[in-house]
Amino acid sequence: MGLRFSILSSGSTGNATVVANDDATILIDAGLSAKRIDQLLLEREESAKNFDAILVTHEHSDHIKGLGAIARKYDLPIYANEKTWEALNKQIGTIAAEKQHVMETGSMLEIGSLQIQSYGISHDAAEPVGYCFYDGEEKLSVATDLGYMSGKVKEQIKDSDVLILESNHDIELLRMGKYPWSIKQRILGDKGHLSNNAAGEGLIEVLGSRTKRVYLAHLSRDHNMMDLARMTVGNILQDNGISTKDEGITLKDTYYDRATPWDRLSEE
């Protein structure tokens, strides 16, 4: 059946994504309460009792709010790099030693036939990462919370069947917004968040012949809108000869308050 996934929640109020194949089911981040994660999973006819592991991208609260609680509730192993573990241990309560697994940045983890590659990203956290998932020839890449799309990131996520990519803010809405200038500088900086424009420009270099869909993720509720993100990214792609109509790339929405439907990478 190949890879399938559902983005349970995406945005500054909480992030969590489920990725699965025939052999394994993985949760990426747990930035919502354990109760809320359970509710969202139930709506997708899934349960955390079926999870094989939780992968952590970084230690910010919107990615780990429910991590300790759900890991303890379902006795789940957690994977993160060493620097992230050092930051996590102050925030998520007691995790049994045998459930704490170090997955160094750039390493590959195999759970059954599911292969998971981590890669470094630029964000103001201890050692933030993104993940690529492989099942046979299928490839799903997750790239959010990155201030800019480096050459190494582009190489890692290039030619994915499906890409979950940050499209956090519209630059002008952010500049005119209510945040203090110090926070605006952080968001706009190389260790902040990817703008709609930066997402579109980066996509030009990473879309491949097999890329079908791009999910625009981690949208700001104050400085972005789904229609605006789709329009901005779509216009940049079309200006560079990449169609978002008919047989072209499909741009998909993500939500802070509900899960996306299950999506399968295969056409079956």
Distinctive features:
2 domains, seven-stranded mixed β-sheet, 14 strands, 28% helix, alpha/beta, Metallo-beta-lactamase, Chain A
Task: Describe this protein's structure.
This protein is an alpha/beta fold and 268 residues long. It folds into two domains: 1-105, 4-Layer Sandwich (Metallo-beta-lactamase, Chain A), CATH 3.60.15.10; 146-254, no CATH class. It is 28% helix and 24% strand. It contains nine helices and 14 strands. It has a seven-stranded mixed beta sheet with strand order 6-5-4-3-2-1-14. Helix 4 links the parallel strand 5 (78-80) and strand 6 (100-102). The protein is globular and about 50 Å long. InterPro entries: Metallo-B-lactamas, RibonucZ/Hydroxyglut_hydro, WalJ/YycJ-like. Residues 13-218 form the Metallo-beta-lactamase domain. Counteracts the endogenous Pycsar antiviral defense system. Phosphodiesterase that enables metal-dependent hydrolysis of host cyclic nucleotide Pycsar defense signals such as cCMP and cUMP. GO terms for molecular function: hydrolase activity. This is MBL fold metallo-hydrolase.
